[in-house]
Amino acid sequence: MIPKLKLLKWGVYLRRCKVIKHAIIIFTKVPEAGKVKTRLTAQRGGILTQEEAKDFYEACLLDTIDVCTSIDRARVWICHNAAGDRNNLNLLITQLKHTDKISGIFSDQGGSFDECMQYAAEFILKPGQKRKLAESILILGGDVVGLQPSTLNDAIEKLEMLSSSSAKQQADIGPAMVVSADQEGGFNLAGFTCNTDFDFQSVFYNMDGVTALEGLAQKAREKNIPLLPLDMVIDVDLPVDLGSMIPVLNVLEQGAGYDPRIIAPSRTIAVIKDLGLQSCAQPVEGWG
To answer: Of 70, 88, 139, 173, which has the fewest Cβ atoms less than 10 A away?
Structure first.
């Protein structure tokens, strides 16, 4: 049974909420031709060359890091694949606006996706240890194109609210989770506090056909972990994802001219334009 949380007025919540040190973990591969976004390539039935797929992902990653480093309430960490070239990644991030917001870069330890995600989370939260690099994490992929600062700030506010409500004492950090669905029943952004009894085991890889989003939600239900949803965050794995993403990016680019709080993924948009890619809908014959 999911526990009922205390409904706190905003002023009461602010007084009771413990100041939490937040971290954003960007979980990524180092961009390399033939190693990233392979399902977008002609070799796997897609439309891009391996080099084009690499350029596309590189732009996505830099745009994602730019958004994450644009907020003031969390420090950013980058976790890359164990086989990735760290020197290339170091060189790549010199293009960023706010490198001072990046607290560190570390590699995963290989293994399954579940294991690598768990390692990244424990690297920051350091379970069982008093000195932690942060007391809550938001973990996301490097291809969440269109992610906005408002979603990250909303995630932090919801973690703090849930943690305050579920804490046994005022000074405690209670269990709390947030998650953003993707377009395929999975998730691209998940966050939880250091005192949340959650792990990634069997979330992405299981024998029951459970989607990643439902797998995460199911664990939260079973362990009575307070959970709140966030705005949907899309990613790009397949050509159909790319097709549906292009109109979204066009609207973000248009909207950024009217609202400075919107960050349009300019590098990704530029790569798409350079490649001459457009999104179109199949006309419906006999409509009307």
So the answer is: 88
Report the CATH number that the domain containing residue 232 is assigned in CATH.
3.90.550.10
Averages of pLDDT over runs of 10 residues in the chain (288 residues) are: 46 56 97 97 96 98 98 97 96 94 95 93 95 97 95 97 84 92 90 96 85 94 97 92 94 97 97 94 72
pLDDT for 171: 62
Q: 3-state SS of the chain?
A: CCCCCCCCCHHHHHHHCCCCCEEEEEEECCCCCCCCCHHHEHHHCCCECHHHHHHHHHHHHHHHHHHHCCCCCEEEEEEECCCCCHHHHHHHHHHCCCHHHEEEEEECCCCCHHHHHHHHHHHHHCCCCCCCCCCEEEEEECCCCCCCHHHHHHHHHHHHHHHHHHCCCCCCCCCCEEEEECCCCCEEEEEEECCCCCCCCCCCCCCCCCCHHHHHHHHHHHCCCCEEECCCCCCCCCHHHHHHHHHHHHHHHHHHCCCCCCCCCHHHHHHHHHHCCCCCCCCCCCCC
* CA–CA gap between residue 146 and residue 205 (Å, rounded): 26
Could you tell me the residue range of the domain that residue 234 belongs to?
A: 18-275
pLDDT of residue 287: 62
Residue 25 pLDDT = 98
Question: Is residue 285 included in any domain, yes or no?
Answer: no
Domain contains 3: no
